[in-house]
Amino acid sequence: MTRTTRRGFLKQSGFMLLTIGVGAGAFHRQLRVAESSVLTRGAGLSGNGRTLVVIQLSGGNDGLNTVIPLSGAYASQYRTLRPRLAIPEADVIPLGTDAGGHQLGLHPNLELWKWFYDQGRMGVIQAVGYDTPNHSHEGSMRIWHQASPERARTTGWLGGYLDLAFPAQDNPLLSVAISKHLPMSLQAAQTRVPAVDNIKQYRFKVQPSKDTEARRQVFLALHREAVPEHALYEQVRQMAFDTFEGSVRLQEASESYVPSPDIDYDRSNPLARALQQAAQIMASDAGTKILYVSLNGFDTHGTQRPRHAKLLGMLAEAIDVFDQDLQRLGLADDVLIMTWSEFGRKVRENGNVGTGHGAAGPQFVFGNAVNGGIFGEHPDLIHLSDVDDPLYRIDFRSYYATILERWLEVDAREVLGGTFEFIDFL
Predict the structure, then answer these.
(1) DSSP code at position 333
(2) Is the pLDDT at 382 greater than 80, yes or no?
(3) What are the TM regions of this chain, as residue ranges (predicted)?
(4) What is the CA radius of gyration of the chain?
(5) DSSP-derived secondary structure letter, 1
(6) Bridge partner list, 364
(7) Which domains can be identified in the chain, with CATH numbers?
(8) Residue 310 in contact with residue 377, Cβ under 8 Å?
(9) Residues 81-101: pLDDT tens digits?
(10) What is the predicted pLDDT for the residue at 257?
């Protein structure tokens, strides 16, 4: 029998160890077993048992056509500056009154959200932003991901949470991004976070595709034992072992999840597909604290009405069906859903019946633990910035701080590097 070496085995199995870096953000680029990363059973690391599901609305959601003013000067200004883009008042779903006495409503494609709101399970946080807004996608995303308007950091706000709360964690699925790429929010100094686009395809692959089980066992034998005297190799070995173990456990999660015939995840809706995978991971009791998904396409510079309407419909339907699944699985009490987008849009429509990059906008939370309602005041549409942006009223780090302290139960100051006022949606 031919002696199997690590080098020979890795070459035969197609498992390539690329240029090694030490940053957690490089993890998913360094190792390849199918598509991305990891998992182990983690009941002992589940902390308070709660999970945060983050939905990124990528591109800059138009908050003014999402939460719409229905009364007073703001409503008049909204329709004056958006003669073609404004949602007809008769189509707007009445929601409630904000802290400034403004009557507000939802885009008609968010009708499902009215049900959450009426149940007290949805919070609308108004005019969220920061000083001196950055109008580039890259710049503003960095600020939101890292919770740092002043300077760039090496970690994201959620990565900072993971490092703080779980410094000695050995659960590779402590956090998972349902994504091809690791979001900057989840970049951490110590915690490795997988980006898994499709957990069914996330498996140990060999080339050629034969003797898979035998090669799996060889891989385990070669990588199970620690090699502390070789620090760099030990780091690679541990990542490789975690990745392999994760591929096995994620397949178990996928296979053990039994979908309900009464709950219809629309396969044409990418957010719904991602959230169903999130439900599979949560149902497997992996001890996952953060699940991260995205919906792209919100950069609506032209032909905004139909494009934005479709996106909001997909968003509402995906959250609704995900919530139904969580209720069925008995997990709803332990899940908080939050949204964020890197900026809002300009108040004034452009010549292409779209909008340019703006600043402050609304964010949304959903869950059984949410104190439902409208928090803060609608953006002032009369007194705009010198570049015609509505000014923010709530610092986005107050949004984060509330979730960190009241849901994830860590000291937000340690993560955010400062003190920010809490918002009473939790």
Answers:
(1) G
(2) yes
(3) none
(4) 23
(5) -
(6) 124
(7) 38-200+265-416 (3.40.720)
(8) no
(9) 999 999 999 999 999 999 999
(10) 87
